Amino acid sequence: MVLITRGVAGLRTGAPLDAASAEIVAIVAGLLLIAGIWTPVSGSALALVQIWNLLMRRGDPSTNILLSTLGAALALLGPGAWSVDARRFGWKRMDIRERKSSSH
């Protein structure tokens, strides 16, 4: 929701074309993340846009760092159990087995 509200607010200010395109990508990524569609792609797009905003010194740097970290984490974690991605492709579960100790 933060992405969508920040993106809409950025578009209302009449930003230049490069800033407006970054805001549109942020809005689309936010909508896709809320719906749980293309989670790795939209999380990566979010991280890239926020890093771009950080480098171009747009907005609050701490917010850009937080949102880029969350985007990267979502891209790495993948979709949740209730997401559209999980319904379409199946939800993957990883079981970590215990190590067998070897005695010397």
**SSE string:** HHHHH
How big a fraction of the residues is strand?
A: under 5%
- Low-pLDDT sequence parts: none
The overall strand count is 0
* Total of helices: 5
How many strands, what sense, and barrel or not for the largest sheet? Answer: none
Radius of gyration: 18 Å
Helix content: 55-70%
The whole-number mean of residue pLDDT values reads 81
Feature tags:
mainly alpha; 104 residues; 5 helices; single chain
Explain the overall architecture.
- The protein is built from five helices and no strands.
- With 104 residues, it is mainly alpha-helical.
- The chain has one domain.
- Helix 1 (2-12) packs antiparallel against helix 2 (17-35) and helix 2 packs antiparallel against helix 3 (39-55).
- The longest helix has 19 residues, at 17-35.
- The chain is elongated and about 65 Å long.
- The mean pLDDT is 81.
